[in-house]
Specification:
With about 120 residues, the chain is of the alpha+beta class. The chain has one domain. A hairpin with a 5-residue loop joins β4 and β5. The longest helix has 10 residues. The structure holds iron/sulfur cluster. The site of iron/sulfur cluster has 12 residues, from α1.
Length: about 120
């Protein structure tokens, strides 16, 4: 039996996805103000309750790439950063952002081209 790994939250003009393989429960999504993510609500994420710019900004805060925003064509909607960055956390992973190519990443992990924790 296969287990769902990518959950989709469809809005009228964009879709937010959450990839359980990448989430390490840092909690940036839960700390976001507004109604895009509400813990305990079903669905937890509703892209129709935030404008596109706010949705993109909140999704981009996810440091692991577990959250991603896709346009109507299914492609990743996230600008390529102008520089690459590595943030070192105490006793934690390295948080890498930029224009990335991650060895071993599954083909359907589109967001790790922008953000990943290793
Ligand atoms: S911000 Fe990303 S890594 Fe953190 S809990 Fe939310 S989805 Fe998971």
């Amino acid at each position: 039996m296969s287990k769902t790994t990518i959950f989709e939250y469809k809005g009228t003009s964009e879709t937010v996805t959450w990839d359980r393989r990448l989430c390490i429960h840092v909690g940036e999504c839960g700390r976001a103000k507004g109604d895009l993510f509400v813990t305990g609500r079903d669905p937890w994420c509703d892209p129709n309750l935030a404008d596109r710019a706010k949705t993109a900004e909140i999704v981009a805060r996810c440091p692991t790439g577990a959250l991603a925003m896709h346009g109507e064509d299914g492609q990743l909607v996230e600008a390529t950063p102008t520089y690459n960055e590595v943030a070192i956390s105490n006793d934690g992973p390295l948080y890498v952002s930029g224009e990335l190519s991650v060895d071993g990443a599954a083909d359907d992990m589109q967001s790790v081209r922008r953000r990943v924790a290793r």
